[in-house]
Amino acid sequence: MSIYTVVEHSELNEYLKGYDIGTLTGFKGIEAGVENTNYFVSTTEGEFVLTLVESVSAADLPFILGFVAHLSARGVAVAQPIRNQQGELFGELKQKPAVFMKRLAGDPLDKPDNVQCEVIGLTLAQAHLVAVELPADAYQNIYHWCRNLSEKVLPELDEEQAGQLAAAVQAAGDLPWSELPSGPVHADLFPDNALFDGHNLAGLIDFYHACSTAYLYDLAVTLNAWCFDEEKQFYDTDKEQLLLAGYESVRPLSGQERQCLPAMKRVAALRFWLSRLRDTLFPKEGELITVKDPEGKRQLLTFLENQG
Ligand SMILES: Nc1ncnc2c1ncn2[C@@H]1O[C@H](COP(=O)(O)OP(=O)(O)O)[C@@H](O)[C@H]1O
Ligand SMILES: N[C@@H](CCOP(=O)(O)O)C(=O)O
């Protein structure tokens, strides 16, 4: 559980006065999540999720929440952000940017099945098609991001891991980033960021990694997260084929994207190995904090490197 910032009843009551979503009847810290503080909030008007955003600054939120609001308005299955009485998508509570979203009915997935993989592939492609309508603001060069973080992390690693990390960062720089179709993407579409009710997708959540970058990177992150079982060290090719088929039923990959996909899956593995290393080696302070094991992503990278 990650609750970095504790909110009192009176503080939430006061904050709710800036919204037209009823008065407070109850609230509870959420026992999942890694990077932000989340509460389930019940009011006389319905069920909501309050997020105190810890992972990005307020300056990033117009892009992130504008992207989610656009997806929602265009009918992509995402949690709907709530505007306050000033028409803004976020305010401030406990000196943190604070966001209300409608609470979705489903549950986050742990181990997705084949049908859920196909559904997520299709939904991801719908998001990419609609994202094309937005300006590609907040461009993130994933290679530079990895290179910068690797400089901080490398001195802490043993020789073998440092060698693997440095080689993977160099390989990430070899991809033709500027030639690949790019736009706003989720960038963290793990199964715990998709709420399902059986095979019905209630919606995608947690857009706080959203940025503009190659759509293929977003697809690679999603493939790795949905098809690789970190405990069993098993990349499920049936799931991969179904996820890709779902995706390409809406947005077929170009020849270049298809050719770059194996290398991009290695970049995606590297990206999350690095962020988990950072969170383990340099933990944030907080009341109750979940840190995911970096080793699973290093093993995924090794698996993908051995595949060639
Ligand atoms: N709109 C929503 N509807 C229902 N549950 C939600 C919603 N947003 C977040 N949650 C719950 O909160 C948990 C943590 O949210 P998440 O955005 O993944 O946090 P973090 O950014 O800290 O990783 C989710 O796993 C889910 O249980
Ligand atoms: N998905 C990332 C961690 C980011 O946390 P999230 O809860 O915001 O998705 C990982 O698995 O390393």
Automatic annotation (TrEMBL):
InterPro entries: Aminoglycoside_PTrfase, Homoserine_kinase_II, Kinase-like_dom_sf, Pseudomonas-type_ThrB. Gene3D superfamilies: 3.90.1200.10, Phosphorylase Kinase, domain 1. Pathway: Amino-acid biosynthesis; L-threonine biosynthesis; L-threonine from L-aspartate: step 4/5. GO terms for biological process: threonine biosynthetic process. Pfam families: APH. Its EC number is 2.7.1.39. CDD domains: HomoserineK_II. It catalyses: L-homoserine + ATP = O-phospho-L-homoserine + ADP + H(+). The keyword Transferase applies. One of its GO terms (molecular function) is homoserine kinase activity. The keyword rRNA-binding does not apply. Residues 27-253 form the Aminoglycoside phosphotransferase domain. Keywords: Amino-acid biosynthesis, ATP-binding, Kinase, Nucleotide-binding, Threonine biosynthesis, Transferase. Belongs to the pseudomonas-type ThrB family. This is Homoserine kinase. The gene is thrB.
